[in-house]
Amino acid sequence: MDSDDDFMSAVSSEDDVLPDDSENEDMSDAEDFDFDDEPDPDLGMSKDFGVKKKVPFDINFKVFHPSDIQKQQDDLINEVNMILDISKEEAAILLRHFRWNKERLLEDSMDKQRQVFEAAGLAQTSAGPPRLETIPGFVCDICCEEGEGLQSFAIKCGHRYCVDCYRHYLSQKIRGEGEAARIQCPADGCNLIIDSRSLDLLVMPELTGRYHELLNRTYVEDKDTLKWCPAPDCQNAIECGVKKKELDKVVPTVACDCGHRFCFGCILNDHQPAPCELVKKWLKKCADDSETANWISANTKECPKCNSTIEKNGGCNHMTCRKCKHEFCWMCMGLWSEHGTSWYSCNRFEEKSGTEARDAQARSRVSLERYLHYYNRYANHEQSARLDKNIYQKTETKMVQLQKESGMSWIEVQYLNSASQALQTCRQTLMWTYAFAFYLARNNLTEIFEDNQKDLEMAVEALSGMFEKNVTELSDPKLKVEIMDKTAYCNKRRIILLEDTAANLAEGRWTFNVELTSGAAASSSHRR
Amino acid sequence: MASGSQKRLAKEYADCTKTPPTGMSIHLANESDLHKWHVTLEGPAGSVYAGGRFGLIITLPTDYPFKAPDVRFATRIYHPNVTNDNQGGICLGLLKSGNWKPSTRLLSVLEAIRGLLAEPQPDDPLEARIAHEYQNDRKEFEKNARSYVNHYAKGPVKFDVAPPNVNASGSSKDGAAPSR
Ligand SMILES: [Zn+2]
Ligand SMILES: [Zn+2]
Ligand SMILES: [Zn+2]
Ligand SMILES: [Zn+2]
Ligand SMILES: [Zn+2]
Ligand SMILES: [Zn+2]
């Protein structure tokens, strides 16, 4: 129980855990982070939480825009170009060969320049830059053409081909194979790399654009600490030091400047508090079991009292039957009146006692029920987050009306925007708490987790209910204050929950009923 | 480019038929189409395949020589680097799209395949089980390979295998696809 004490103090200090301005968007802390240093073994993990004001699920990361990515490459190229006295194109080829590890490049090049250049596909000669030439008696070895004015080209190795063949070869590599950084001389057995200047000389501008795009791509892909933001149309990359082997201790959520929040470990949307491996297992399970579970995520259900069909049209789980006015919870179909009190038990699956689970059939039914319990809640928050989003879009119109009706300015109605964002982030978190809980084995910490989950869930449902009110109700200034307070409260409850789960994860205090380290994918016998 | 490719093909075919590589005879599947070759390959002396005659079908893509040729066995063969089915797919480093060079000649491809029969490459297998057997139970492997030779690779070579599922040129329909 030794760990229990400091754990309790971390969660029980209700209101003053965090300064009030700790918005969840403000996750990055770039100033005190210097990437030029030798990477620290656990760079991404703030191991000294509690000492710093930082929350334990905060991860160090940096957003790079396309110009930053270009500049980083240019800076390294210029440096190597000056130190080694080679052209910039050659410096780039060397750097790519060393996966942009400048220190190792320089060290190795000092010791054994010949071997290094050969391995990287660089010519040893210091011949001038390649150019197009017309040589009498030349026969192209690729197309077997010859002729008076046949223009030809060769890089420093001297393997000469006609310009048409060279161009066709390059466009096949760039467009057909998506290759850029490692295009070799077309000669059989020659591993010299075609430099970017030769390429610019030979191919059409539209292909050069693609070529340089691919080069940038390999820069990011070659570095383990860099990943592209997966948002469509986003060109940014994120730098983060969290290593693959640390993913059982930390959930590295990063936020791109484009607004997209994703996991640096697996590139999926933010899935805190569940570790990547659980997410992978959970998604696979959901896909496998989708047929059994599909009916649950359907948009309609029957009223538990009068059986009339009820369609869920907002994010709120508090349902009122239009026909009989029965109030119930969408998730558990239980009485809503039981939900505002200590009776609230919508989030925790009550394990049935042993008697029912005696025979195998009953046990498998219990295990399915257990899965459905968590899946139901997971799917519900996922769906609600989507509905909340739709409602916000509708609310934008409402916000305009609200301005007219109440005389509030555009800025003054922005609290609805904040509420909508809070709803979505919190539902995203809630959704993954259920996947997390599904794999969680009970110990003395799970109850606190379930309490945190319940608190957040209740706050979110309350906010969701207020958020759906109509314009007339919304123009009541009292409701505005309530919504703002509830928004702040939701955000705070979310942070408390994430702090708790992250701290325990980092310390290895959770027990899961599955293996958390990913089994290395069995290497297939044949790659094509 | 199409005419260039035609010129190169004609030259390669002429070279290959004038001085064919050791133990091989080369024909076009159809006199008017340079894109499909039928090669008969004798099992290299001293190997388990000696005494067998193997059919190879070479399909040259329209974009040849910028894209690699498709080469497959028409005759069943028990070999770690050849699929053990009626597709006869071959795993050969120099034919993989990232490795293929447009200056590589079919002559070197054919020689590489002959080399593969003389010395299988169990480290990069298409048939993991056969590769494992080759490495751990050479006697059993040789027995199986010889029995395949006796069963499939004696007598006149037939080229009527299932058409390759890649680079199907469309123009040449043999109409001889066997039932699977
Ligand atoms: Zn040419
Ligand atoms: Zn060359
Ligand atoms: Zn982005
Ligand atoms: Zn992840
Ligand atoms: Zn009802
Ligand atoms: Zn409920």
Features:
heterodimer, A: 528 residues, mainly alpha, Herpes Virus-1, Four Helix Bundle (Hemerythrin (Met), subunit A), three-stranded antiparallel beta sheet, 14 helices, elongated, disordered N terminus, disordered C terminus, B: 180 residues, alpha+beta, Ubiquitin Conjugating Enzyme, four-stranded antiparallel beta sheet, binds zinc ion, metal-binding (chain A), EC 2.3.2.31 (chain A)
Describe what you observe in this structure.
The complex is a heterodimer of chains A (528) and B (180). Chain A is mostly helical. Among the domains of chain A are: 107 residues, no CATH class; 81 residues, 2-Layer Sandwich (Herpes Virus-1), CATH 3.30.40; 168 residues, Four Helix Bundle (Hemerythrin (Met), subunit A) (Up-down Bundle), CATH 1.20.120. Chain A is built from 14 helices and twelve strands. Chain B is an alpha+beta fold and 180 residues long. Chain B has one domain: Ubiquitin Conjugating Enzyme (Roll), CATH 3.10.110.10. In chain B, strands 1-2-3-4 form a four-stranded antiparallel beta sheet. In chain B, strand 1 and strand 2 form a beta hairpin. In chain B, helix 3 crosses helix 4. The interface between A and B is medium-sized, with 25 and 25 residues. The structure holds zinc ion (ZN) (6 copies). Chain A: Keywords: Metal-binding, Repeat, Transferase, Ubl conjugation pathway, Zinc, Zinc-finger.
Q: Say what the CATH topology of chain B is.
A: Ubiquitin Conjugating Enzyme
The biggest sheet of chain B amounts to: 4 strands, antiparallel
The shape of chain B, in one word, is globular
What is the percent of helical residues of chain A?
Answer: 40-55%
Strand order, largest beta sheet of chain A: 1-6-5
User: What is the CATH architecture annotation of chain B?
Assistant: Roll
Number of strands of chain B: 4
CATH class of chain B: Alpha Beta
How many strand segments of chain A? Answer: 12
**Helix- and strand-based class of chain B?**
alpha+beta
CATH topology group of the domain at 276-285 and 367-524 in chain A:
Four Helix Bundle (Hemerythrin (Met), subunit A)
H and E string of chain A: HEHHHEEEHHHEEEEHHEEEEHHHHH
Strand fraction of chain B:
15-25%
Shape of chain A: elongated
Count of spatially separate domains of chain B: 1
InterPro entries (chain A): Ariadne, ARIH1-like_UBL, E3_UB_ligase_RBR, IBR_dom, TRIAD_supradom, Znf_C3HC4_RING-type, Znf_RING, Znf_RING/FYVE/PHD
Catalytic activity (chain A): [E2 ubiquitin-conjugating enzyme]-S-ubiquitinyl-L-cysteine + [acceptor protein]-L-lysine = [E2 ubiquitin-conjugating enzyme]-L-cysteine + [acceptor protein]-N(6)-ubiquitinyl-L-lysine
Keywords (chain A): Metal-binding, Repeat, Transferase, Ubl conjugation pathway, Zinc, Zinc-finger
Biased composition (Acidic residues) (chain A): 1-41
